[in-house]
């Protein structure tokens, strides 16, 4: 294990997930009501394509994706660095999670354990994503599936995300690590996620308006906030990858 400890730039505590205000790169209210539909949509597609029996979610936060996948009958595990987020997970999901830093720690599983590994909105925060990806590849079965969602652009200078690359860069990166890029599935998942996010952002427009504070803002302002959030969601790379290996 390296002796250098990489502390995340962001503290993934309540103020990151549930501050109730909109800041680029942060959640405002990270609840099942707001994000459950994204999790269900993702689980539906992944099951339609791959029917995984064993699934690991890296950066699982409050376990929303794990919950959606578990409801379909798979055995799930999750890891995250945030004590706060894991403490908010459903009890059943929480029992299947580990608190750890994927920048430097080994995943607590033997080689070739999982049919599917997911890592959503997390690699962009990692100072040592090479180590994390090597670990994800190690615990994935040969021909197993890795699904990555990440940002290719920071919204502005206050955005805490560190690592932003475009889709082509990531495709080359994963090819050099012996992954095959599944384009049709990647495009479909990205399209579906954008659709669900757009719906939920529009539905949350009124809540945001109330939370903007003491000031009364016109609909035009709220509309611009929604448009800004949608633009930042659109800066999203989705990669569905298959690990090569013995057949
Ligand atoms: C933007 S959130 C994404 C949460 C969830 N995957 C989703 O898509 O809704 C990023 C997550 O990565 C976790 N994370 C960040 N750095 C980490 C690290 N070094 N090791 C493990 N988890 C980390 C955070 O605690 C947080 O839960």
Question: Helices and strands, in N-to-C order?
Answer: HHEHEHHEEHEHEHHHE
User: Looking at this structure, what is the CATH superfamily of the domain at 36-152 and 161-191 and 233-243?
Assistant: Vaccinia Virus protein VP39
> Helix tally?
10
Here the CATH topology of the domain at 36-152 and 161-191 and 233-243 equals Rossmann fold
Biggest β-sheet description: 7 strands, mixed
CATH architecture of the domain at 36-152 and 161-191 and 233-243: 3-Layer(aba) Sandwich
Compounds present? S-adenosylmethionine
Distance between the termini: 31 Å
Low-confidence stretches: 1-5, 206-213
* SSE-based structural type: alpha/beta
Shape: globular
Strand fraction equals 15-25%
What is the typical, i.e. mean, pLDDT? 87
> What is the CA-atom radius of gyration, in angstroms?
18 Å
CATH class descriptor of the domain at 36-152 and 161-191 and 233-243: Alpha Beta
Itemize the secondary structure elements and their pairings.
Blueprint lengths: L13 H4 L14 H19 L3 E5 L5 H7 L4 E6 L2 H6 L2 H4 L2 E3 L14 E7 L8 H11 E12 L15 H10 L2 E3 L1 H21 L1 H7 L7 H16 L1 E8 L4
Parallel strand pairs: 1-2, 1-4, 2-3, 4-5
Antiparallel strand pairs: 5-7, 6-7
Helix pairs in contact: 2-3, 2-8, 8-10, 9-10
Bound molecules: S-adenosylmethionine.
């Amino acid at each position: 294990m390296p002796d250098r400890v990489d502390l995340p730039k962001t503290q993934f505590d309540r103020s990151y997930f549930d501050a109730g205000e909109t800041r680029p790169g942060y959640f405002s209210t990270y609840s099942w009501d707001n994000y459950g539909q994204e999790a269900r949509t993702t689980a539906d597609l992944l099951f339609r394509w791959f029917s995984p029996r064993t699934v690991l979610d890296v950066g699982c936060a409050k376990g929303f994706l794990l919950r959606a996948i578990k409801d379909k009958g798979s055995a799930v595990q999750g890891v995250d660095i945030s004590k706060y987020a894991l403490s908010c997970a459903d009890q059943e999901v929480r029992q299947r999670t580990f608190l750890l830093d994927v920048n430097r720690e080994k995943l607590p599983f033997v080689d070739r354990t999982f049919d599917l590994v997911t890592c959503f909105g997390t690699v962009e925060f990692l100072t040592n994503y090479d180590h994390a990806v090597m670990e994800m590849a190690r615990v994935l079965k040969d021909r197993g599936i890795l699904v990555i969602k990440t940002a290719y652009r920071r919204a502005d200078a206050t955005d805490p995300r560190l690592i932003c690359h475009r889709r082509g860069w990531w495709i080359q990166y994963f090819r050099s690590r012996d992954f095959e890029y599944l384009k049709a599935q990647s495009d479909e998942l990205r399209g579906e996620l954008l659709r669900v996010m757009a719906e939920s952002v529009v539905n949350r427009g009124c809540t945001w308006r109330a939370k903007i504070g003491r000031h009364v803002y016109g609909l035009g302002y709220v509309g611009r906030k929604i448009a800004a959030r949608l633009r930042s969601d659109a800066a999203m790379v989705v990669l569905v990858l298959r690990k090569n290996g013995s057949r």
